[in-house]
Write a structure and sequence with these properties.
- The complex is a heterodimer.
- Chain A is mainly alpha-helical.
- Chain A is built from 14 helices and no strands.
- The termini of chain A are far apart.
- The longest helix of chain B is centred in the middle third of the chain and has 17 residues.
- In chain B, α4 links the parallel β4 and β5.
- By secondary structure, chain B is of the alpha/beta class.
- Chain B has a seven-stranded mixed beta sheet with strand order 1-3-2-4-5-6-12, sandwiched between helices. A seven-stranded mixed beta sheet of chain B has the order 13-11-10-9-7-8-16, sandwiched between helices. Chain B has a two-stranded antiparallel sheet with strand order 14-15.
- The two termini of chain B are about 25 Å apart.
- Classes of the chains: A mainly alpha, B alpha/beta.
């Protein structure tokens, strides 16, 4: 029994570790989409954030400066999307793909000199009071700061979105820009802030990967996790609280794939490798039965993006 | 889609030619970034060695070229720009290289790791599994839990050779040892490699090694969790000052110089050129402080035995995972057989497909 509990907790905390970067992107992208803008470029923003964070951590020797720089890099690249979409009225899907390509190219090019550098990590909760908690201490101890920050972002975002006036206008912009305009506000300001926030969170997610989790920079190291996050926004129904289970679902299937192999379970590794995609997809299909009419919480403004794609 | 983007980027931006007092132009093609601190990095070090040690050579390189028809176009472009010796360095480039080689009989091709040749295409590789066997000896002597962990990308012969050689090396000094394999299904996915390392360690493994692009990820996790690590491709000892045992690393430079020289002076042979511990194309890195003097000596004695052919890594009996005899006592696997390896040996835990 104790063995079982230990293994289950190991799996749960492994899931949380794997889920954190994805969760950060889901939160950011959900906020972006709540304003009626979709940004597929988050993958590129993550990569640029990861590279910048690692490079700054390597040069300055301070990993926290790296995290900060990663956030700014994410915002900077997201501004390309903002200029194209809000400034030039470009197609959001095309612009997002352009940002994705730009981010992966820039990070590969400027990241090359930093490959193989060794950086200090952000540390973890070991040797604090939580690591002394019986039973749970061994699992709580290795938790790193980016996990905590991302988890704390959930209530912060949801209070902002659902309990403040600005949050209300943010949401109304996503439903109908006319409403915001009729209330005497410029919807573009909200969309600009929403894109920037998405940039911040994806840059931070990049730092969570490169500065905190792996302490390593490798070209293309996000391996599609940013795009997975865009998909998980739908599973999370654009709700910051649901973002946690959605991201955990991905993290758990990723962890389970590796855990089952280490247990020596007699299932083909090729099949196991599909788990992180199959499980969230199945949940999406099951949970959306009967939700089709309502769109599952999709902001009405987003529908325009898909219907009038120029 | 992503591949198309990468190719576009690679061919348009990253084609960099390095100028020298030029006579012979030599071209290199890498499947991944040259800065991966792994397989491509090692080939790139060979190219740099070539530049430094031959006066009359100019090199060009392309990175991130996928193993499809794109690589044919890259090779054609190289040849038309005057490249006389082409190094297609990835396993999956072979058939494409053969096609281009047929079209340009005056150009020389040296493919890394293939098992086919033509008049103007030879292959080169190194038996790095010898070094992995020795690293396995060090791991077998060091482990306390008798559980080793191996993080592997894809089940291709080169990877299976390393898993099996590592395990056999460990078993040769410690028959109790088992190796757990986790497949990451990717040459480079740092997050998954780190998580695989965590899973192996929490499953009881206390020595980790792997065959993915870069050893940095699992070596760092091992160090953080206080277990030992064995590197592969490139020396990662600086990432594990406490737990680093030893690593199996490449050294392509001298071999590449010989190949280019043979193309220049007409002594070119269409052959399978294979380096080993003796020619130092595959080497054992320096030991970490975690390996005792006595154990280091044991490993070095074995190395001596491999170099003077007293010890063969693939001498029978070799047992499969299910205990069946694959190589009989007294037999030894040939080079062809090892380079087509499609099994895991007894003591390895993990499924092949």
């Amino acid at each position: 029994m104790e063995y079982f509990t230990t293994e289950l907790l190991t799996l749960l905390f492994a899931a949380l570790r794997s889920a954190t970067p994805v969760l950060a992107v889901v939160l950011g992208e959900a906020m972006t989409q709540r304003s009626g803008v979709i940004n597929l470029g988050v993958e590129g923003q993550m990569l640029l954030g990861a590279m910048t964070g690692f490079a700054v951590a390597s040069v300055t020797g301070d990993p926290w400066l790296g995290v900060l720089a990663a956030c700014f890099a994410g915002i900077a690249l997201s501004m390309v999307h903002a200029i194209l979409v809000l400034g030039c009225g470009a197609n959001q899907i095309a612009s997002g793909v352009a940002v994705l390509v730009l981010g992966s190219g820039l990070s590969a090019y400027y990241g090359t000199p930093f490959v193989g550098d060794k950086i200090d990590t952000l540390g973890n909760l070991n040797h604090t009071f939580v690591s002394d908690i019986p039973m749970l201490g061994q699992f709580l101890g290795p938790i790193t700061p980016t996990v905590l920050i991302t988890l704390l972002a959930i209530p912060a975002i949801s209070i902002f979105l659902f309990r403040t006036r600005t949050g209300l206008r943010w949401r109304s912009t996503g439903e109908s820009q006319d409403i915001t305009r009729n209330l005497g506000h410029n919807p573009m300001h909200y969309q600009l802030a929403a894109i920037a926030f998405g940039g911040l969170m994806s840059g931070f997610a990049g730092a969570a990967l490169a500065v905190d989790y792996t302490a390593n920079w490798v070209e293309g190291m996000t391996a599609g996790r940013g795009l997975v996050a865009v998909g998980l926004v739908i599973v999370a129904r654009w709700n910051p609280w649901y973002a946690l289970p959605a991201a955990l679902l991905f993290g758990a299937s990723e962890a389970l794939n590796l855990k089952l192999q280490s247990w020596g379970v007699n299932i083909s590794p090729y099949l196991l490798a599909t788990l992180p995609y199959m499980i969230p997809l199945s949940v999406l299909m099951l949970s959306y039965r009967g939700l089709r009419a309502s769109g599952g919480g999709m902001p009405a403004g987003l529908r325009v993006v898909f219907q009038s794609a120029r | 889609m992503k591949k198309a983007i990468r190719t576009l980027l690679a061919t348009s931006i990253l084609a960099i030619s390095v100028q020298a007092a030029a006579e012979t132009k030599v071209g290199f093609i890498y499947v991944g970034p040259k800065s991966d601190y792994g397989y491509n990095y090692a080939q790139e070090q060979g190219r740099i060695y070539l530049e430094e040690h031959m006066d009359d050579v100019e090199t060009v390189y392309f990175e991130n070229i996928p193993e499809n028809a794109d690589v044919q176009r890259v090779m054609e472009r190289m040849v038309r720009s005057g490249v006389e010796v082409v190094f297609p360095t990835s396993y999956g480039y072979l058939d494409h290289a053969l096609k281009v080689a047929e079209k340009y009989p005056d150009v020389h091709f040296a493919h890394s790791g293939g098992l086919k040749t033509s008049d103007n295409l030879m292959t080169y590789f190194a038996e790095i599994d010898q070094a992995m066997y020795l690293a396995g000896v060090a791991a077998g002597l060091t482990t306390g839990t008798n559980q080793l962990g191996f993080i592997a990308a894809h089940p291709i012969p080169q990877v299976l050779r390393n898993i099996n050689a590592f395990t056999r090396g460990a078993q040769s000094v410690n028959p109790e040892v088992t190796t757990s394999v986790i497949w990451t299904s990717s040459w480079s996915d740092p997050t998954r490699e780190a998580e695989a390392a965590e899973a192996l360690i929490s499953g009881g493994a206390d020595v980790l090694t792997g065959h993915v692009d870069s050893p940095i990820n699992y070596v760092q996790v091992a160090e953080r969790r206080g277990v030992y690590s064995v590197g592969y491709h490139a020396d990662a000892s600086q990432f594990a000052p406490k737990g680093w045992l030893v690593g199996a690393i490449w050294n392509w430079g001298p071999m590449m110089v010989n190949i280019v020289n043979s193309a220049k002076d007409g002594s070119w042979k269409s052959e399978h050129l294979r380096g080993d511990l003796l020619t130092e194309a595959a080497k054992l890195s320096d030991f970490g402080s975690a390996v005792s003097e006595e154990d280091q000596q044991t490993v070095l004695d074995r190395r001596e035995a491999i170099m003077n052919e007293e010890l063969q890594v693939w001498a029978g009996p070799v047992f499969g995972q299910d205990g069946k005899v694959i190589v009989k006592e007294g037999d030894t696997m040939t080079l062809e057989e090892t380079e087509k390896m499609d099994f895991l040996v007894q003591g390895v835990q993990g499924r092949l497909k």
